[in-house]
Amino acid sequence: MKTELEMKQEMCEIGRRVYNRGMVAANDGNFSVKLNEHEFLCTPTGVSKGFMTPEFICKVNEKGEVLEANEGFRPSSEVKMHMRIYEQRPDVNAVVHAHPMYATTFAIAGRALMEPIMPEAAIFLGGVPLARYATPSTMEVPDSIQEYLQDYDAVLLENHGALTFSDTLLNAYYRMESVEFYARLMYQAEMLGGPKIIPPEKVEELYEIRRNMNLPGKHPAMKK
């Protein structure tokens, strides 16, 4: 089991990955890790996620109240969104919010990513719904994602960005990569006249594969 310092170091490493892949600009984005039922580590506001060191990381409780923060650092105002996910999804231990270019383009266009265009996306994502627009840092944001939390592990935030969550921070980050790859494929396929959609009966076969894999998280295939 990782120590708290090791978790902070991992958050800094994920911050570098997110920044270096162009998933955030300047000081954008935020992510968090669950330590236990009452303590969570989260990234601070107003700093680049690509240049963090462990002392940047803040600790909050389940209400988003600050438990620990070094001078000059305070938690992201989006911590409310993270806490809603942890409240509704006991299986989730990490949340990543970023602004990857293609996924955010779809969010700005008001378009979800629900079309089954490749087996991997159907199996591992099952689609990425679009949460209605909500003013950042307000309770509108957690309220906007509420309806999707029991069926999906990734959500687009209208006119805002993307949100992924999983059992570990690394898996939540990988899911963000998958969402961005899915979005880029969809965008480029539309440049060639539109994607060829996998037929419903074949999607069900993919969903059966997902059910047999016993993967962590939520997925539309689990509703059957």
What is the gist of this entry?
This protein has helices spanning 4-20, 79-88, 101-108, 119-124, 140-145, 169-191, 200-213, and strands spanning 30-36, 39-42, 58-60, 66-68, 94-98, 130-131, 154-157, 161-166.
Topology at a glance:
Layout: H1 4-20, E1 30-36, E2 39-42, E3 58-60, E4 66-68, H2 79-88, E5 94-98, H3 101-108, H4 119-124, E6 130-131, H5 140-145, E7 154-157, E8 161-166, H6 169-191, H7 200-213
Parallel strand pairs: 6-7
Antiparallel strand pairs: 1-2, 1-5, 2-3, 3-4, 5-8, 7-8
Helix pairs in contact: 3-6
Residue runs with pLDDT of under 50 for 5 or more positions: none
Report the sheet with the most strands, covering strand number, pairing sense and barrel closure: 8 strands, mixed
Helix content: 25-40%
- Give the amount of beta strand, in percent: 15-25%
Shape: globular
Q: How far is the first residue's CA from the last residue's CA?
A: 34 Å
Description of the structure:
The protein has 7 helices and 8 strands. The chain is globular, with a radius of gyration of 17 Å. The protein has helices at residues 4-20, 79-88, 101-108, 119-124, 140-145, 169-191, 200-213, and strands at residues 30-36, 39-42, 58-60, 66-68, 94-98, 130-131, 154-157, 161-166. An 8-stranded mixed beta sheet has the order 4-3-2-1-5-8-7-6, with helices on both faces. It has 224 residues and is an alpha+beta fold. Helix 3 (101-108) crosses helix 6.
